[in-house]
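Input (structure):
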């Protein structure tokens, strides 16, 4: 059986990964599947790109552990404060044990998680799943507005 086709999309993704080679590969794969990518090498650079683009992103795809003092979790917290509808997909080469308290908060905000390294299909499926999932607090606001 051939593997099931992986769906792409046209959503805007802010990709934050400090490892340049990995960031390049991820950008290339996601662009090939139609996603519009804005890349950043650190949390600080991501905050800058986010505000220069007017916060027009559907998904934050970020490494958890990064240099320059802003972790992926902190970045996600800050951006979700500005835009509660922003979806978040964390990626990390560390296990939950190493991530400690980060691991628990990664699942807050309905965030997704991908282990590194991951295959192209895992990346694409993870991104699609995350984009297609309604965030709990957004669904709550929508239903209370009815």
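Output (sequence):
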């Amino acid at each position: 059986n051939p593997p099931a086709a992986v769906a792409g999309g046209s959503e805007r993704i802010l990709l934050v990964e400090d490892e340049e080679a990995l960031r390049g590969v991820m950008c290339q794969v996601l662009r090939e599947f139609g996603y519009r990518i804005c890349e950043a090498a650190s949390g600080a650079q991501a905050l800058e790109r986010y505000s220069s683009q007017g916060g027009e992103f559907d998904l934050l795809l970020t490494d958890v552990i990064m240099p320059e003092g802003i972790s992926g979790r902190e970045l996600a917290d800050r951006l979700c404060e500005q835009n509660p509808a922003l979806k978040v997909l964390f990626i990390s080469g560390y296990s939950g044990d190493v991530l400690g308290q980060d691991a628990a908060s990664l699942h807050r905000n309905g965030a997704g998680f991908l282990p590194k390294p991951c295959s192209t299909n895992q990346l694409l499926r993870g991104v699609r799943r995350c984009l297609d999932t309604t965030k709990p607090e957004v669904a709550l606001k929508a239903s209370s507005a009815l």
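Notes: Residues 20-32 form the longest helix (13 residues). The radius of gyration is 15 Å.
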